[in-house]
Amino acid sequence: MKECIRIFLICPVKSMPGTTEKKIKKYVRALENEHKKTGGLPKKVHWPLRDTPQDDPAGGFNICKTNFRAILVAEEIHI
User: Fold this and answer.
1) Selection from 62, 45, 40 nearest residue 53 by Cα
2) What is the mean pLDDT of the chain?
3) pLDDT number for residue 1
4) Which of 19, 49, 65, 67 has its CA 20 to 30 A from that of 57?
């Protein structure tokens, strides 16, 4: 049985204003808490700023690999 709906969020990670980050955080929180109001399946959002380590000694390869894997298992992609 399906436990949750997996979502990958495409959004800025670096060099974004704090107001943009706050709006994205609010959006992610709303998605992840939606099931409490609707009774549907929980949503697990992969938010790269939060869920992908950004300190990559491989020059970005590991960041891309982590995000790629999250995209592969996602049922929804939000931009």
Assistant:
1) 62
2) 96
3) 76
4) 19
Q: Is 11 exposed, middle or buried (0-12, 13-18, 19+ CB in 10 A)?
A: middle
CA gap 76, 73 in Å, rounded: 9
Q: What is the DSSP string of 18-48?
A: HHHHHHHHHHHHHHHHHHHHH-S--EEEE-H
Is pTM beyond 0.90? Reply is yes
C-alpha distances in Å from residue 75, one per residue of 14, 45, 59, 72:
25, 10, 28, 8
Longest dimension (CA), the chain: 42
Non-local CB neighbours of 37 within 8 Å, separated by 6+ positions: none
**Residue 13 phi/psi, 5° resolution?**
-120, -45
Q: State which residues of the chain have pLDDT below 70.
A: none
